[in-house]
């Protein structure tokens, strides 16, 4: 099922096979004439028309961020980066990402570029855009945000997925299963969703997890930003971190990293220096959650040990590294 929206209200429709999936044939109202074609500026300083250059004729994934956000924006963008990886070559060809600032008075193109680079998000496949405040407000209003007062801390954390050619739009969340989000994006393509087996593929997609409680937490909360033995992502590779840091330090950092920075913990400050684009926010994890994650990281590091001993270059040499600004700098990534 896909949902169309107008002024914040959703109208849902069931996907059916069709011989004519063009927006014109279906009387689409969510295209030219609905979305503003205001001028916006990208992270590279390029001036584009919002509708004609970013939406028209495309399948798009739109998120709403601001660069000074220390809570959900970095996590949402990291999860979208993971979605982008899973979509592979389709990104920039069949699917495009747009991240629209909700703080245009503050977010300059240079700030957006630094934010985008932290997630390896590059134009033209993924555009981060700002513009004149009134224009950004008008664009947001067409996406359903018509609040009179602007409260950055409570802005929307959903994403909008749309196919301008067919007029199909859907709201979704990056905090649900990533595989299902990937499938939702793929289902925006009529050729894919009308193909044999598409419905069963959409109904599946969930990967079984082990009995280790920390694995589910890692996949949902940590994997968008970190690997265990796969090299740097948004944040440092976590292979061997349980050997480099004591249990209490890890508990404190996982549960409340801003507090560690506030008390000027040297290791926390080194991480902030080494990864200036994004700082780990409070994730709402308690001490027991953190303990589960630490146990999982320890077990996964132990499983990597044979590869390290062979010296095959696929994972970092755990014993010699310190979690700090240079974390992962000499790692050979298994995935680019």
Report the end-to-end length measured between terminal Cα atoms.
34 Å
Oligomer: single chain
Give the radius of gyration: 21 Å
Largest sheet: 7 strands, mixed
Helix content: 25-40%
The neighbouring-strand order within the major sheet is 4-3-7-6-5-8-9
Number of helices: 13
Structural class: alpha+beta
Summarize the helix and strand pattern as letters.
EEEEHEHEHEHEEHHHHHHHHH
Low-confidence stretches: 1-20, 202-209, 308-336
Strand share of the residues?
A: 5-15%
Question: Care to count the β-strands?
Answer: 9
Mean pLDDT comes to: 77
Shape descriptor: globular
Description:
The protein has helices at 50-55, 72-87, 109-118, 133-142, 178-186, 190-193, 198-203, 213-222, 241-244, 247-255, 257-262, 266-274, 287-310; strands at residues 2-6, 9-13, 39-42, 47-49, 59-65, 95-101, 126-131, 158-163, 168-173. The strands form 2 sheets. A 7-stranded mixed sheet has the order 4-3-7-6-5-8-9. The radius of gyration is 21 Å and the shape is globular. α2 packs across α5, α8 (213-222) crosses α13 (287-310) and α10 crosses α13. The model is unreliable at 1-20, 202-209 and 308-336 (pLDDT under 50). The chain has 13 helices and 9 strands. α3 links the parallel β6 and β7. The protein has 336 residues and is of the alpha+beta class.
């Amino acid at each position: 099922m896909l949902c169309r929206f107008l002024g914040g209200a959703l109208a849902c429709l069931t996907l059916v096979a069709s011989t004519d999936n063009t927006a014109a044939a279906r009387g689409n109202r969510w295209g030219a004439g609905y979305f503003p074609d205001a001028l916006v500026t990208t992270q590279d300083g390029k001036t584009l028309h919002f509708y004609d250059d970013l939406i028209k004729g495309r399948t798009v994934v739109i998120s709403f961020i601001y660069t000074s956000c220390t809570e959900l924006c970095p996590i949402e963008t990291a999860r979208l980066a993971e979605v982008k990886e899973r979509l592979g070559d389709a990104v920039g060809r069949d699917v495009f990402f747009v991240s629209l600032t909700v703080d245009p008075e503050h977010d300059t193109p240079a700030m957006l570029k630094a934010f985008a680079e932290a997630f390896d998000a590059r134009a033209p496949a993924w555009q981060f855009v700002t513009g004149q405040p009134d224009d950004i407000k008008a664009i947001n209003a067409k996406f359903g945000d018509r609040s009179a007062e602007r409260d950055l801390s409570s802005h929307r954390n959903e994403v909008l997925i749309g196919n301008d050619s067919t007029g199909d739009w859907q709201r979704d969340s990056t905090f649900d299963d990533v595989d299902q989000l990937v499938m939702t994006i793929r289902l925006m393509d009529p050729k894919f969703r009308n193909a044999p087996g598409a419905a069963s593929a959409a109904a599946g997609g969930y990967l079984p997890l082990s009995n280790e409680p920390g694995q589910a937490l890692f996949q949902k909360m940590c994997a968008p930003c970190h690997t265990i033995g796969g090299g740097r992502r948004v944040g440092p590779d976590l292979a061997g971190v349980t050997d480099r840091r004591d249990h209490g330090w890890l508990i404190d950092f996982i549960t409340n990293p801003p507090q560690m920075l506030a008390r000027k913990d040297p290791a926390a400050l080194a991480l902030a220096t080494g990864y200036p684009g994004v700082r780990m926010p409070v994730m709402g994890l308690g001490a027991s959650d953190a303990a589960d994650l630490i146990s999982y990281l320890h077990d996964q590091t132990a499983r990597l040990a044979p590869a390290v001993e062979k010296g095959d270059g696929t994972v970092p040499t755990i014993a010699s590294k310190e979690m700090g600004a240079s974390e992962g700098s000499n790692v050979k990534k298994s995935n680019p």
